[in-house]
Amino acid sequence: MKNKEEFIEIQAVLDAFEIIGGKWKFPIIYSLCQSKKRYNELQTDLNGISPRSLANALKELEMNGLIKRDAFATVPVTVEYSLTKYGKELKPVLLSIQEWGKKHRKKIIDEIKNESKG
Amino acid sequence: MKNKEEFIEIQAVLDAFEIIGGKWKFPIIYSLCQSKKRYNELQTDLNGISPRSLANALKELEMNGLIKRDAFATVPVTVEYSLTKYGKELKPVLLSIQEWGKKHRKKIIDEIKNESKG
DNA sequence: CCGGATCCGCTTAGATACTG
DNA sequence: CAGTATCTAAGCGGATCCGG
After folding, report:
1. Left (φ > 0), alpha (ψ -120 to 50) or beta: where does A32 sit?
2. Which among A6, A14, A41 is the nearest to B27, CB-wise?
3. Given CB atoms, is A40 within the 8 Å cutoff of chain B?
4. For A107, which residue in chain B has the nearest alpha carbon?
5. Is the dihedral of CA B57, B60, A90, A77 positive or negative?
6. For a tag site, which of A15, B1, B23, B59 has the least CB within 10 Å?
């Protein structure tokens, strides 16, 4: 580390990961970017997340003020999760990750094609 | 999930996290964004990462073509890690995370101030 | 039935000590 | 200096169960 400024910069990244680290936080937020979702919709979107992990992640995200949980006393219960205004500030981050993910996917596919070509 | 397109989008995020998920990958890449670094410099930058976790993360990042490892037969050995061209494509992602991290830090500090004000 | 909580086992991450 | 070995702690997933 060279100086105090650089320390703060990397500390910002580390801090961000205290909140949005873990395997599922980003995908959850990404899913909620599109629209508010119910518990089961999230579970489907996230393609096989366990209920335990989903519940934990949602609780932490709510504690940190990134998402909002609304429960309606219907029968059966309806619970909706949505991004808070603060959570929406993560959108640019999400979009850049997703863009990189698409590029990466393309790269992998190209590599496989080249291998089979010989 | 509503349609196939949305599935691909979220899948891109999931895929990205296969590569750059985990607690330390982003901070490592962030640190290497600035300049190439030696093993111990990274350990210092990352403020307390264990050697094991650092070694593991570096190995995975190298396997995925994001970073490059150069060893020089000096005594003692010198090893330098740097971003590959492909790894550098993550810079925009890093910058947006870091920006959010700074915002978040400011928010937390403000909240603490307001609490102590009463 | 929906939204979780709980129990269990496996995999990943971390602390510390030690080595080429 | 740049890691590995070992042990322990935390996180994740699967199945099952419970309250409304």
Report:
1. alpha
2. A14
3. no
4. B86
5. negative
6. B59
Scanning every residue of chain B, which has its alpha carbon at the shortest distance from the alpha carbon of A1?
B45
Nucleotides of chain C touched by protein CB (<7 A):
1-7, 12-17, 20
pLDDT in tens, B33-49: 989 999 999 999 998 79
Q: Please, are residues B92 and A95 in contact by the beta-carbon 8 Å criterion? A: no
pTM summary value = 0.89
Respond yes or no on whether the N-terminal peptide bond of residue B76 is cis (omega within 30° of 0): yes
CA distance B95 to A88: 17
Is B39 buried (19+), middle (13-18) or exposed (0-12) by CB count in 10 A? middle
Rounded distance between C-alpha atoms, residue B37 and residue B14, angstroms: 29
* SS3 assignment, position B67: strand
Residue A22 backbone class (left: φ over 0; alpha: ψ -120 to 50; beta: rest): left
* Dihedral class, residue B65 (left if φ above 0, else alpha if ψ from -120 to 50, else beta): left
pLDDT tens sequence across B88-104:
999 999 899 989 999 99
